[in-house]
Write a structure and sequence with these properties.
- This protein is of the alpha/beta class and 256 residues long.
- The chain has one domain: NAD(P)-binding Rossmann-like Domain (Rossmann fold, 3-Layer(aba) Sandwich), CATH 3.40.50.
- It has helices spanning 17-28, 40-43, 62-76, 99-127, 149-169, 187-198, 207-213, 225-235, and strands at 8-12, 32-37, 52-56, 81-84, 131-136, 174-181, 246-249.
- The chain has a seven-stranded parallel β-sheet, with helices on both faces.
- Helix 4 (99-127) links the parallel strand 4 and strand 5 (131-136).
- Helix 1 (17-28) crosses helix 8, helix 3 runs parallel beside helix 4 and helix 4 (99-127) packs parallel to helix 5 (149-169).
- The longest helix has 29 residues, at 99-127.
- The termini are far apart.
Length: 256
């Protein structure tokens, strides 16, 4: 019997990278999982797995988030665990950050997290059996970096939203936690690497990741598999007494 057997879960940003790994690990431990993402084409590769469904969603659009939750409940009968994992980044030098860049990142990373928590909580309250909400923060939620200021601000927002929701939802037996990855070798980091070169913050491919990795006590960057032990724990009964906390999973890069 798996650690999350019988639990109905949603993972946003699940078409690739950390989100996909979270969802697959939950499936391996017995959960039913809705893999949700904006990228419908990449979701197609997941759709044929047992106990899995997919949903195309823009997490900054409340009606789409509600439809995603309704689809999950129609398929599995309930919603037990909500992972607000969808996130974007678009590096710009601090003085070049535009309103468009700010609104794009904050809309998905900040507002999207808020909407996901609210709509998941409403469903869980209606069910009357509690639930778990897990949010993806970042090492950027603990300190600012000059080329990704809006991203850092958005992940600080995730921490604050996690704490606020934990206080408000405890009376409904809903826990709200989060985790903060460090440098993880995913498609998103490949995009960030290219963007940093375009704005002159890096001179060659892989330079940014190498420089970040130099400060990691474990001596290497993470893979998505390094994250999923913690995320499955946060979805399981083993974490029932945790709420309002952010777990750092960064190989010792940021000591707080």
């Amino acid at each position: 019997m798996g650690r999350v057997s019988g639990r109905a879960c949603i993972v946003t940003g699940a078409a690739q990278g950390i989100g996909k790994a979270i969802g697959l690990a939950l499936l391996d431990e017995g959960a039913e999982v809705c893999f949700a993402d904006r990228n419908a084409e990449k979701l197609d590769a997941i759709a044929d797995r047992d106990r899995a469904i997919t949903a195309t969603v823009d997490v900054s659009d409340r009606s789409q988030v509600r439809a995603m939750i309704d689809k999950t409940v129609d398929a599995f009968g309930r919603l037990d665990v909500m992972f607000n994992n969808a996130g974007v980044n678009k590096p710009m030098n601090f003085l070049d950050v535009t309103e468009e860049n700010w609104n794009f990142i904050m809309g998905i990373n900040g507002l999207g997290c808020l909407i996901g928590m609210q709509e998941a909580a409403r469903q869980m309250i209606a069910q009357g059996r509690g639930g778990k909400i897990v949010n993806t923060a970042s090492i950027a939620s603990r300190q600012g970096f000059d080329n990704v200021a809006p991203y850092c601000a958005s992940k600080w927002a995730v921490v604050s939203l996690t704490q606020s929701a934990a206080r408000d939802l405890a009376r409904h037996d809903i826990t709200v936690t989060g985790f903060a990855p460090g440098v993880v070798a995913t498609e998103m980091w490949e995009e960030v690497d290219r963007d940093l070169m375009q704005i002159g913050a890096a001179e060659r491919p892989g330079q940014a990741m190498e420089e970040f990795a130099a400060d990691i006590l474990k001596g290497r960057v993470a893979t998505p598999a390094d994250i999923t032990g913690t995320t499955t724990f946060l979805a399981s009964p083993e974490s029932d007494y945790m709420t309002g906390q952010i777990v750092m999973i960064d190989g010792g890069m940021t000591l707080v």
